[in-house]
Write a structure and sequence with these properties.
- With about 450 residues, the chain is mainly β.
- About 5% of the residues lie in helices and about 45% in strands.
- It is built from five helices and 31 strands.
- It has helices spanning about 5-10, 25-35, 145-150, 190-195, 440-445; strands spanning about 40-55, 60-65, 75-80, 85-90, 100, 125-130, 135-140, 155-160, 170-180, 205, 210, 215-220, 220-230, 235-240, 245-250, 250-260, 265, 270-275, 285-290, 300-310, 340-345, 350-355, 360-365, 365-370, 375-380, 385-390, 395-400, 410-415, 420-425, 430-440, 450-455.
- The strands form six sheets. A seven-stranded mixed beta sheet has the order 11-10-9-13-18-15-16, with no helix packed on it.
- A hairpin with a 2-residue loop joins strand 10 and strand 11.
- The longest helix is centred in the N-terminal third of the chain and has 9 residues, at about 25-35.
- The protein is globular.
- The two termini are about 35 Å apart.
- Mean pLDDT is about 95; it is low at about 1-20.
- Bound molecules: CU-O-CU linkage (C2O) and copper (II) ion (2 copies).
């Protein structure tokens, strides 16, 4: 099998300018079209997926998989208008690929098995795309996800915009959990509970480490970019029970900050929050408060990290009243033009399969670029499902007929049991194959996904 980019394999370390003749036409076109805005730049990145020994728990080496030898993978960072050029090499014993979760890239760069051949072991693939929006995003494989993400393959991707609130410090917190067996290794996959609930582990991780201690300076206000990269866990995030300000969600800043005591991150969700100021000597627990999503195994309040407040430092943080404006795409009562039903179907083998419109891996109707989409996402089941749309942001118009508390751009929305979430989105002209799915990885694998074409 020739590599998609054999050119790269052949000339190690050299900077290439285009994919080889072996690459597929859509990929080659998208590659060539990705140019930085005037004054912006191309950011070259090398990513390699490989097996590593990682200490999730200090003192215990766990065989895991990581990008560039670390969990999470390196934080990729750029500015709106920059181009990321990622040369990815697969050193895993199985095929993989990389999906750029939340980024509005051309279909050919979406990194799914719909749009590219998976990257075989010891092969490389070149992703290249412009960063169109500021926000907190992440990257992860889109092949054998239930295993590959749990093993540690995921990383943050931060895009900065022109008008960001100026806080005293910023940190990226990737929250995950991992299920370790009694020898400290990642537990075997499978089983009915895991198929139903999705895989949850009892080792809760912040940036790849179990329940770390985080240090902050008294008097300061920090911007935290929080990513829920876990397979199935919902995280109702609390910062020691103290109020914080929500600044942004999946698709960047809100219109105005919202003060909250906790915020729910379904799987794959992101929030940007402003935390602090705290007083010297305080110790706060960064917790996931109990959230019952009708699983077989129930969870309580659980700690992700401890926050210790050190000596004070001066603060120059300034959070404007107004962050940006988000024009509404459609009125709350806009008539839906599509229904997406999240359901379960009896299965002899597995008890249930998770489906869309009664079908595993639903093949949905095409969508025309420029035509406003108003979709009713209806959960016919008794458990929550985080609905994720690839490549496009949507606005939530209503949940069971009620408008949401704020307007935002999202690529994941939780659909509670028996609920209808009405979303609106506008397909811009990025033709090709796209998909939506439940981001509980086991449900996605079971078939709770749909794919469709965007046509020009
Ligand atoms: Cu996080 Cu199909 O995506
Ligand atoms: Cu995605
Ligand atoms: Cu689901």
């Amino acid at each position: 099998m020739e590599s998609n980019l054999e050119h790269h394999g052949a000339h190690h370390g050299s900077v290439s300018h285009e994919p080889s003749a072996g690459a597929d036409e859509a990929h080659r076109q998208a590659y060539a079209a990705a140019q930085p805005d005037p004054g912006r730049r191309v950011i070259p990145v090398e990513l390699e997926a490989r097996a590593i020994d990682w200490e999730f728990v200090p003192g215990t080496k766990t065989r895991a998989w990581g990008y560039n030898g670390q969990i999470p993978g390196p934080t990729l960072e750029g500015h709106v208008g920059d181009v990321l050029e990622i040369r990815f090499t697969n050193r895993l014993p199985q095929p993989t690929n990389i999906h750029w979760h939340g980024l509005r890239v051309p279909a050919a760069m979406d990194g799914t098995e719909m749009v590219q051949r998976s990257v075989a072991p010891n092969e490389s693939f070149l992703y290249r795309f412009r960063l169109p929006d500021a926000g907190t995003f992440w990257y992860h494989p889109h092949a054998n996800e239930t295993v590959q993400l749990e093993m540690g393959l995921y990383g943050p991707l931060i895009v900065r915009g022109a008008d960001e609130p100026q806080l005293d410090a910023e940190r990226v917190l990737v929250l995950d959990d991992v299920r370790l067996d009694n020898t400290g290794q990642i537990a075997r996959f499978g089983g009915i509970v895991e198929h139903h609930d999705g895989r949850e582990g009892d080792t809760r991780l912040v940036n790849g480490k179990a329940e770390p201690v985080l240090k902050v300076a008294a008097g300061q206000v920090e911007r935290w970019r929080v990513i829920n990269s876990s397979s199935a866990r919902y995280i109702r995030l609390s910062v020691g029970g103290k109020p914080f300000r929500l600044l942004g969600t999946d698709g960047g800043l809100l219109e105005a900050p919202v003060t909250l005591n906790d915020v729910l991150l379904a799987t794959a969700d992101r929030v940007d929050i402003a935390v602090g100021p705290f007083a010297e000597g305080e110790a706060l627990s960064l917790d996931a408060l109990q959230y019952l999503r009708t699983t077989i195994r129930k969870r309580k309040d659980e700690r992700f990290a401890t926050l210790r407040v050190g000596p004070p430092r001066p603060s120059a943080a300034r959070i404007p009243e107004r962050l940006r404006s988000i024009p509404p795409l459609a009125p709350a009562n806009a008539a839906p033009n599509r229904t997406v039903k999240l359901g379960v179907k009896f299965s002899l083998r597995r008890m249930v399969d998770f489906v869309i419109n009664r079908e595993r891996h639903h093949h949905d109707k095409p969508v025309k670029a420029g035509e406003l989409q108003v979709w009713d996402v209806i959960n016919t089941t008794l458990m929550d499902h985080p609905f994720h749309l690839h490549g496009f942001f949507f606005q939530v118009l209503s949940v069971n007929g009620e408008p949401p508390p704020w307007r935002s751009w999202e690529d994941v929305v939780n659909v509670p049991p028996r609920a209808t979430v009405r979303i609106a989105w506008l397909p811009d002209d990025r033709p090709g194959s796209w998909m939506y799915h439940c981001h509980i990885l086991e449900h996605h694998a079971s078939g709770m996904m749909g794919h469709f074409e965007v046509v020009s």
